[in-house]
């Protein structure tokens, strides 16, 4: 199954292997694409990945995780992103971009935005609660970023609502203590994400993914049942796939092991009736194949394994005995 095509939102991926979005911290102060991004992403497409996901890309300057993050808050970013898109698509893969806002976890100087004035840890300053005007700006910035992603030629958009960044902060009762329409019960905590998805859908008709931290590993936080609920709502809104990760909304240690997040992807897939992507210490072809055969997920997202081996997909095909044509320039090696 790993090398069977799949169609999501009208876009067909040649296989089920996805390069997970991973920050490279290699952009300049203005958030522009560099040669590193051109080489890094295109090499995974050459290596046989079906979908290459570009790292968390900031929708506004103070939404960056660091000053070296890619940006999509201005039209000047479109040209560089378009070049990455061209290189990846020319090598036979589809390409997506993860739209993000770091919120209280930003390490950029200046004001930190968040739902409530609660610092991530003692190493971070206390953030400023977003006003209604500020929330409106965030929603508008996601919408504008999606429009720029469309202009750049991306095949897929993913909204980053995981890992303790701004949208995750609004979703979680651990850091959202608001008593207005954006805080309180889980429907009100969902309101920001709902408005962002609605705004993105106004300018984007292609496949739309959302990344969740499906377990917050802390008492009083969200757990898998909450994210099954949210995933049902997103399916009704036209989201095509949930990219299922976990943790990082609070600085709580996570015990990871091979496939440790797969059960979360399986539960959301089964109970919310939406396609899912499994991620987290998936390293060998047989493991990935079994996840798909068992109906636990629809896509396999690989992170660190694709940093170690850009040609993982070509080796995986050989391991599974699947005919998967390498680039003609590399055919003599496979």
Describe it:
The chain is an alpha/beta fold and 334 residues long. It has one domain (11-333): Aldolase class I (TIM Barrel), CATH 3.20.20. It has eleven helices and twelve strands. The strands form three sheets. Strands 3-4-5-8-9-10-11-12 form an eight-stranded parallel β-barrel, surrounded by six helices. The protein has a two-stranded antiparallel ribbon with strand order 1-2. It has a two-stranded parallel ribbon with strand order 6-7. Strand 3 (17-19), helix 1 (35-46) and strand 4 form a beta-alpha-beta unit. Helix 1 runs parallel beside helix 2, helix 2 (78-90) packs across helix 3 and helix 7 (224-236) crosses helix 8 (262-272). It is globular.
What are the low-pLDDT stretches, counting only 5+ consecutive residues below 50? none
Specify the number of helices.
Answer: 11
What portion of residues is helical? 25-40%
Radius of gyration: 19 Å
- What's the CATH architecture? Alpha-Beta Barrel
Distance between the termini: 20 Å
Spatial ordering of strands, largest sheet: 3-4-5-8-9-10-11-12
- Helix- and strand-based class? alpha/beta
Oligomer: single chain
Main sheet, how many strands, which sense, barrel?
8 strands, parallel, barrel
- Kindly estimate the percentage of residues that lie in beta strands according to DSSP: 15-25%
Structurally, the number of domains stands at 1
Overall spatial form: globular
Q: Provide the CATH top-level class.
A: Alpha Beta
